[in-house]
Amino acid sequence: MALLTSFAKLLLLLLTLLFSMQPSNAFDFEVGDEEGWAVPPSRNTQFYNHWASRNRFQVGDTIHFKYKKDSVMEVSEEDYEHCRSSHPLFFSNNGKTEFKLEDSGTLYFISGVAGHCERGQRMIIKVLSHSHSEGPSGSPSSSNQTGSSTSPESSDSSGALQVTASVLEVIVLLVSLLFF
Fold first, then answer.
1. According to its record, how does it sit in the membrane (predicted)?
2. How far apart are CA 78 and CA 87, in angstroms?
């Protein structure tokens, strides 16, 4: 009986550790898909905002900007509205900029090349927290790196993972009640 109790305690500990960890569902997004980060065609000034509205960004995701002879800047809402690039919160011009979404809120991006923002090379991204219950807080992220990326595939598996984890937590609770 003592061996069975020890085994049950070990099993309970392992299951508790396994299901207390949060699953990571971070995605990589290629800004503008095939178009990349460039002045939009046909003076489509809402091109990037339409692209952003088709995606769901969460804390932990990464957005990738690919461009030639250009730059990307994170700016304040006011600088976004007026296409001002004099005080960026973040700046990169290496052609392959990786921007990690570290906080929920609204982020504003523009091109740093004169005239590009006015022609539509700008974008607003709304980043959701992992819990989905909190709305965007409006606090921008500024600690980012550069790199390359791949596009995400649409996935809504987080709900299924949460249900599975909840069911297993109930099973663990029942097992612990039986043996303790």
1. Lipid-anchor; GPI-anchor
2. 11
Distances (CA, A) of 122 to 34, 35, 51, 118, 136: 16, 14, 11, 8, 19
Q: Which domains does the chain have, with CATH numbers?
A: 28-127 (2.60.40.420)
Q: How confident is the prediction along the chain (180 residues), in pLDDT tens digits per residue?
A: 565 566 666 555 555 555 545 455 789 999 999 889 999 987 788 999 999 999 999 999 999 999 999 999 999 999 999 999 999 999 999 999 999 999 999 999 999 999 999 999 999 999 998 765 343 333 334 444 433 333 333 344 444 444 445 555 656 555 565 555
0.70 surpassed by pTM? no
- Tokens representing 155 are 């996935």
